[in-house]
Amino acid sequence: xxxxxxxxxxxxxxxxxxxxxxxxxxxxxxxxxxxxxxxxxxxxxxxxxxxxxxxxxxxxxxxxxxxxxxxxxxxxxxxxxxxxxxxxxxxxxxxxxxxxxxxxxxxxxxxxxxxxxxxxxxxxxxxxxxxxxxxxxxxxxxxxxxxxxxxxxxxxxxxxxxxxxxxxxxxxxxxxxxxxxxxxxxxxxxxxxxxxxxxxxxxxxxxxxxxxxxxxxxxxxxxxxxxxxxx
Length: 231
What we know:
By secondary structure, this protein is α+β, with helices and mostly antiparallel strands. 29% of the residues lie in helices and 29% in strands. The chain has seven helices and eight strands. The chain has helices at residues 35-45, 57-63, 69-79, 124-137, 140-149, 169-177, 222-225, and strands spanning 16-20, 23-29, 82-87, 93-102, 108-115, 159-164, 181-192, 195-207. Strands 1-2-3-4-5-6-8-7 form an eight-stranded mixed β-sheet, with helices on both faces. α1 packs across α3 (69-79). The model is unreliable at 1-6, 9-15 and 212-231 (pLDDT under 50).
């Protein structure tokens, strides 16, 4: 992938705490010391995605190798674009992560979003997603890029977007409950050793919150917390 840095999220906002279903989840910038833990979580949850077992065999084989993930996570953490969700009730157990990317077309991408099986259905996914949107929309470069490119989107203005597998119905329902809408299938070039692999994925978009009025408040509810999402 190519694109501009979002900018170190550690400079954009303080750690967010969300109390949900008797559990405290904290969303904060990842630490370099957590690279191995994030890589392990990514590896453990990658094939939880509905449809991951239908990926081309070369891509499946590579994604099963734990060693693949650490260099990519280290790059994200070093760029300051990686957020993690930790369970404050379990000695900061890492339960999710999200990586943000500012694209050259003026849109902001939620590039990676994974939550541990133990934290699904608790509201952790909604809290992490809301924090990622907040961080991205609080970045001045996002608005400068959006205004410069004026990319047309399905939401009629600057957008936050993501990709997910077209058959991943649980993830699609979750994102729709969180305000995203389907923008249609796109060919997405997934990074792998030696280059990329073209996959047809579903692009989903959400209008970016203006920095002048602040990001929308994501209130936890049973309809959102009942997710089983791995994007």
